Sequence to fold (195 residues):
Amino acid sequence: MVDTDGGSGSPAPRKRADARRNEKALLDAAAAAFVTSGVDVPVRDIAAKAGVGVGTIYRHFPTRADLIVAVYRHQVEACAEAAPVLLANSSTPHAALAQWISLFVDFVITKHGLAEALQSDDSAFETLHAYFLDHLLPACTQLLDAAARAGEIRPDMDAYQLLRGIGNLCIGADNNPHYDARRMVELVIAGLRIH
Fold:
């Protein structure tokens, strides 16, 4: 390996930044492809959308299960990281909660094929539910607590119950044109308000 940093023996920081950007581009492209075509979308389509070769995807994610898990984790992290940002930038904690729940609904509704993939025998999927709870429950709790402290919502709302209820409202939303899950979720969030 060529030493590019003047002899310290550590790799050049640019390469690490490039690798992170490439991985993020792959994950974003895969997530978009999963939304439009499901988790069984051909890898070549994901590679084309990301602007990389198929080999690059397999270098980062040797199996489809590895890719699905990475996309899921990436999206869970993005949703969790949005909570404090929304709280800091919204007019009220309830407004931040409503915006965050909208992101959560997007996440839940766009998981075409993920539920079926998670039911497979692939051990790569075993820890995803815990990962989901470990990241999204604290984010939701932070928003609920802020809205309760501001006197905007009832103080007895539990994050797990809320996320579970919203998830249940979203079941089948992608295959029934007469059902508007987003509207149902909006009613729930509006119903949390203290009038």
About this structure: Residues 148 and 180 are 28 Å apart (CA to CA). The first helix runs from residue 13 to 37. The chain has a mean pLDDT of 85.
